[in-house]
Write a structure and sequence with these properties.
It is a single chain. By secondary structure, the chain is mostly helical. It is 75% helix and 0% strand. The protein has 12 helices and no strands.
């Protein structure tokens, strides 16, 4: 993988990890469309992927640093009793929402990995992802609620956590699925996106940590870490800008927030599937 490919993949990762359009689906489909000679089983790909995810996680921590600081202080019991209770409640909800993906991801790891090498499967599920986003906007207009993130309870977190499990399939967006889960529980777009990005942080960090033991046993060619580190910075900056854009966007587009992303996924998935099958 040359430096140009590395930077393009970093930008793609930083944007699509948070936009509800599936970073994994794009990562599987795009190389086959543009004939990039990228061997995902090569010794250089794993450290590259690990550092890209690390860059995204750092960007999320940096953007939501006030939330994470409040949660940390609350867990330690530093603020007053009321703020401590609220911080601990939100921290518990993040844990609860994370557990389903961890458990199901562990149980289905081999099956899910088998889907990674199929661009046709990923393109098909990008279409499914788009339909899911559009259908959710239609459904919520009939049960219009305007709950904020502060109203989330344990049941809400469990439901959103199970929605997150759909992202194990290439083509289904993690942020899209969790935002859909929040919207269907009556939470507004901004609150659903906020909670989605908060629970993304432990998931991304956890996935990165799990790859470290494999990374230590790989024979990494010289210069790979330098390229990967630069790509991680690019992915992090892109992820931070993506998060800032999306939070502002969802606050201003409460009625039809997911529609443009749904239309894009259906169009891109359909065109990609046509090219792949032809």
């Amino acid at each position: 993988m040359d430096a140009v490919h590395a930077m393009l993949i970093a930008i793609l990762q930083g944007a699509t990890e948070l936009f509800p359009v599936s970073s994994l689906g794009h990562a599987v489909v795009l190389p086959s469309l543009v004939n990039w000679a990228i061997d995902q089983r090569s010794p250089e790909f794993l450290p590259f992927l690990v550092l890209l995810h690390l860059g995204t996680a750092v960007a999320l921590l940096a953007y939501f640093w006030r939330d994470w600081l409040a949660l940390a202080l609350g867990v330690l019991g530093v603020p007053g009793p009321e703020r401590t209770r609220e911080s601990r409640r939100v921290f518990m909800l993040i844990i609860v929402a994370t557990i389903p993906a961890v458990v199901i991801g562990f149980l289905l790891e081999k099956f899910v990995r088998g889907l990674f090498g199929s661009p046709a499967v990923a393109a098909s599920f990008l279409i499914v992802n788009g339909v899911m986003l559009l259908a959710t906007e239609r459904l919520r207009t009939r049960t219009a609620g305007a709950r904020s993130m502060e109203t989330l309870g344990v049941v809400d977190a469990v439901v959103i956590g199970f929605w997150q499990c759909l992202a194990l399939i290439p083509g289904i967006s993690r942020s899209g699925a969790t935002i859909v889960g929040g919207l269907l529980r009556g939470v507004d777009h901004a609150g659903s996106a906020h909670f989605s990005f908060l629970i993304a942080t432990p998931i991304i960090i956890g996935a990165t940590v799990l790859e470290v033991p494999h990374l230590l046993h790989e024979s990494v060619p010289p210069g790979v870490f330098q390229t990967a580190a630069l790509a991680a910075v690019v992915a992090g900056v892109t992820a931070w800008l993506s998060t800032a854009f999306l939070m502002r966007y969802f606050r201003r587009h409460e009625e039809t927030g997911l529609n443009p992303f749904g239309i894009y996924c259906i169009a891109f998935g359909a065109v990609s599937l046509g090219f792949i099958l032809s």
